[in-house]
Amino acid sequence: MFRTICGLFLCMAMAITLPAQTLRTVVTFDETNGEDPFASLIEGADHDLYGTTVYGGAANYGTVFKISPQGVHTILYSFCAQTGCTDGTYPAWLTQGNDGDFYGETYNGGTAGAGTVFKVTSNGALTTLYNFCSQPGCTDGALPQSALVQTKDGTFYGTTVIGGAQNQGTIFKMTPGGVLTTLYNFCSKTNCADGAQPNIGLTLATDGNFYGTAALGGNSSPMCLYRCGTLFRITPSGKFTTIYTFCSQAACADGAIPQGLMIQAKDGSLYGTTDGGCSNSLGTAFRINARGKFTTLHSFCTGNCSDGGIPYAGLIQASDGNFYGTANLGGPGRFGTVYKMTAAGVVTGLYGFDDKADGAFPVAGVIQATDGRLYGGTEQGGDDNCFAPTGCGTIFRLSAGPASTSQDDLIGNRNQGRGNAARAVPTLPVSPLRVNW
C-alpha cells in the first residue's frame, strides 16, 4: 500500500458507501481556535481527524488540531510558542508516520526563518526535526509546504517550494531522526524545462517511484506568467524524469499551473488537477499513466460555472469509484464547490458555498473517512465576525448528492466566536501562482 495524505484513507474506506447528502459545519474557526485550513485533513489510526490551520491559535501563527468523531475540536499545538518562532510558523499538511506520530512542515519560522519539518504526538508534544536553509545558500531548500510521504523503511520524502541549487525548489528525503538529503534541484535544465516550484509534494505509486507536480517551468505561454508547469517521476535514489509539460496544446487546452497532489487510482493511472489552462483559464482535471500518456478529462467553469473553477486541491477516489475534489471559485453560490467526477470526466457539483455559515473558497481537498462521509475545509466564511467581514474558515462534512446552496441543508452547531477586525494579519509568503481571491 502506498501512503499519501489522501491515499491512506481511501484504502481504509473501500468497503463503505456514501450516504445521502447532508452538509454540516463541524468547526467554525474564530482565530482563537485557528484560522484558514489550507491543507486537507487526515484520519488517524484512532479515527480522530487531524489537520492544521495556517493562522490562528495562541500566537496567530497556525495550529495543529484534532476533531473527534463526535465533532469535538481540540488544539494540539499552537506555533511560534518558542522564542523567535524556532518551532516554525504557518503549518501545512500532516501525515501519520509508522510510529503513530504526526509529521509535517511549516512554511516559515525555524532557526533560519525558512521553514521546518516537525513531529507532533497525538497529545501535542512537538519536536523540530529539521530547519531548512541550514546550508549555505539554502541549498537544502526553503519554504516547504508539501505533503510528506513515508516509505516502508521509515524514510520521509517531500519537496520545498524554493531553495536548492537554482532557488526553484527541491525534492528531499529525510530519516525519522531528521537527517536530510537533497535528491533533486529544480530548474536544472535550460529554461527550467524540468519544472520549478513543486508546491505540494509527492505520490508514491505501486511501481515504487514517486510522482509529482511542479507549478512552474516547462513551456512558456501568454496564459502563464512564469511558464506553465510539469509532471515528473523520481526514483527513491533520485533519478528524475519529466513525464509531461503543460500547455503543450493550443490555448493550453491541456491545463496549466498544477498545484494539487496527484493520486494513483484503482486503474493504475495518476489523476490530478491544474489551476489554469483550458478555454476559461480556470483549470482542468487530467489522467496520466506511467508511460506519459496524458488525457484532459474536464475543463472547469463550463456553462454557468456550476462545476466550479480553479481546483487548487487534487482529487481522491472514493469507495464508489468516483473522484471527488473542491474548486476554489464558482458553483451556484459563487464561492466554491465540492464536486464529483467520473473516470470519464463527467463532473457534478455536490455543494456550492455561499460565503455564509457554510464557508467560502475551499482550497483543501476532501477526504473520505471511515464513516463514509467526505470532510474538508474552507479558507474563509463561517463566522463573519472573525477577520470581518471575510470569516476565518470552516471544517465541513458532506456526503454525495445534487448541487445545493440551501441553508436548509446546513445543520449542526455553529461554533461562533469573536474575532478582532482591527488586528494585524501576517501575510503568508506563497509562490507567485498561489492566488488569494
How would you describe what is shown here?
This protein has 437 residues and is an all-beta fold. The chain has a domain of 182 residues. It contains one helix and 29 strands. The strands form seven sheets. It has a five-stranded mixed sheet, with no helix packed on it. It has a four-stranded antiparallel sheet with strand order 2-3-4-5, with no helix packed on it. The protein has a four-stranded antiparallel sheet with strand order 6-7-8-9, with no helix packed on it. The two termini are 37 Å apart. The N terminus and C terminus are likely disordered.
- Mean residue pLDDT: 87
Low-confidence stretches: 1-20, 401-437
Q: Helical element count?
A: 1
In spatial order, strands of the major sheet run: 26-27-28-1-29
What structural category do the secondary elements indicate?
A: mainly beta
The major β-sheet equals: 5 strands, mixed
Over the alpha carbons, how many angstroms does the gyration radius reach?
20 Å
H-E order: HEEEEEEEEEEEEEEEEEEEEEEEEEEEEE
